[in-house]
Amino acid sequence: MSYTSNPTARAVLNKIVHDPRYSDVMHIPLVSIPQFILVAFSLGSFSLSCIAYLNGAIPLGLAILINVVAVYVSFTPMHDASHRAVSSNPRLNDFIGTLTGQLLLPGVNMTTFRAIHMDHHRFTGEEGRDPDTGFVTPPKWAGVFYLMFADFHWVHWYLRYGRKIWSRHVATWLFIMLASVVISHVAFLMSPWWKEFLLLYVIPQRLGLGIVAYVFAHIQHPEGLTWENEPFQSTVYVRGNSPWRRLMFGQEEHTIHHLLPHIPWFKYRRVWDLANGTLRNQNIPSRGWFEGPKNIITPKPSDNEPVDMRVVEINDVAENIKTFTFEAINSPLPGIVEAGAHIDVHLNNGMVRQYSLISYDAEKGRYHIAVKCEPNGRGGSAAMHKLVQGDIIKLGPVRNNFVLYENAKKFILISGGIGLTPLLSMANRLHEISKPFELHMCGRYKNAIPFADEILGGALAKQAALHLDTENGRNSIDLDAVLGNPSSQSLVYICGPQGFMDWLKNEALKRGWKDENIRIESFSAPIAKDEENHHFSVKLAKTGQVIQVDPKQTVLDALHHAGLDVPYACMQGTCGTCAAPVLSGEVDHRDAYFSDSEKAANNVMCLCVSRAKGEELTVDI
Ligand code: FES
User: Fold this and answer.
1) Structural domains in the chain, sorted by start
2) Secondary structure E strands in 144-266
3) Nearest to 95 by CA among 150, 190, 169, 30
4) What is the secondary structure of 105-160 as a DSSP string?
């Protein structure tokens, strides 16, 4: 149902939105100069060409050509306005979108276009739910000429499917749009200027709409693939030489737009940078302007299945700590090995445990982890310590929730005991790319920390420090020296026992570090599937109204159906536009927008994706 239920897309998205630079990328000012330039260009060139033709200054052919270009350009600000990416002021944003949109879609209003377009985003490729599938595979009888009548297609889609789905509010605005189109066209065609209207407006508008639908819809999605199942294959990037690509104003990377719809067109490249290489590994298909994508590699169900591995080496490296080296028997693990990544180990007693990777030898297909035996634990580490060389064991895919954002200026890595393992892989990576970092290893005594001697005697020695005392290093680490210079350009990574991580995070916050600059290791929680959703009710504190939310609906859908005009922009839990204060009830947070501490505070939620854990929520709207 929602984008966030796809684990791969969610993992990539988490990587992007938790980058400290994300807030800057998603910032929308009151007046955005690049958007203003496009609006001024499209409206200005259209008006001037009409005036010039009517005064005999330019021939008809040139006037039509200029107007087609103006119509084409008008799409980008109108489309961005539907995602509230034109102005931080909602009224100004919608006014600009509606005004510019008149060139492309006469009579258009943002309520209607936003509803149509968001259904495309939420249900990309799903026949009957995505209003744009008809542009990807237009009827044979019409071919690409069908695209010139995209608005007719949407009305047909609404009558066939949309009216069962959309709220009365959207339906009303759709009919207002249709009425204004009919009235304006009839009025002009019956007036003495009917010929000029036809030549300077209707023809360029139809041609421009056809080009827009071809460039921004028809070639952007391969046939038959859905965002829900194949998020990275259901969108394409358009190959081509740079002058042609520039005609798309940077929007040739359509996956970026579907990942983060509320990011304006001129910032797509920056999102690509935030993804830090992960997108490159997702098999996003490419295509030419007139040539469809070929040999699309879609994810196989087996990609997430555990793989048999052989234990080839076990070593005692510290008190109760052993390292294990696993070697691939047939194929390496799915997923990308990066600093901070972890694997699932499926133990013979049925338990599944997550362990951070210390390193990976790609040549030999060998994965290296360290495990501390917890005698009072639930048996996972004890079962690990019973493994012997030659055992065959199943390992799950490589995943990473503890991403190293390599673009930060400086890194402070602090570990408690065995928590050193992911930080060691980070320290090695930062050393390799020559980034400034400090590695602080805390523990009760040296033998409680794996690899301490190796680190202090090796290449990382200059950046590493040991803090030992009976309180897991808490009394000997000088927090003012380590955390005393908070910076939005630096990142603090902490890994160790939960109490140790909470204590350090609090100390960092007290010293002025921002929440988003402090990263704590947490292994991924399973993501709820739609079928696990339950029915609940939402009470609106301001009116006392109680809205029922069924398992197939989002809270936002239910509120819209009840006639409430709640703002939204991405419908994917990444922009915060739909955020609402929560007064009671426990929230099942499914967004990527709020930080962990904001989620834990349980006083705000993204209505577009998050749900209730219990039977009822009260929101302050
Ligand atoms: S609409 Fe963007 S977070 Fe809900």
Assistant:
1) 3-18+30-218 (no CATH), 303-399 (2.40.30.10), 410-520 (3.40.50.80), 530-619 (3.10.20.30)
2) 237-238
3) 30
4) STT--HHHHHHHHHHHHHTTT-TTT-TTHHHHS--TTTGGGGGGGHHHHHHHHIII
For residue 555, report the distance from its CA to the centre of ligand 1, in Å: 11
Q: pLDDT tens, 161-207? A: 988 888 889 999 999 999 999 999 999 999 999 999 999 999 999 99
Tokens 């991403």: give the residue: 403
H helices within 404-464, ranges in order?
420-432, 452-456
Q: What is the pLDDT of residues 553-575, one digit of tens each?
A: 899 999 998 888 899 988 888 88
From atom 3 of ligand 1, which residue's Cα is the shortest distance away?
Answer: 573
Q: Are 402 and 421 in contact (CB under 8 A)?
A: no
- For 356, the token pair is 């951070």
118 lines ligand 1 (CB under 6 A): no
205-264 pLDDT, tens digit per residue, is: 999 999 999 999 999 999 989 988 888 999 998 887 767 778 899 898 899 999 999 999
Classify residue 196 as left (phi > 0), alpha (psi -120 to 50) or beta: alpha
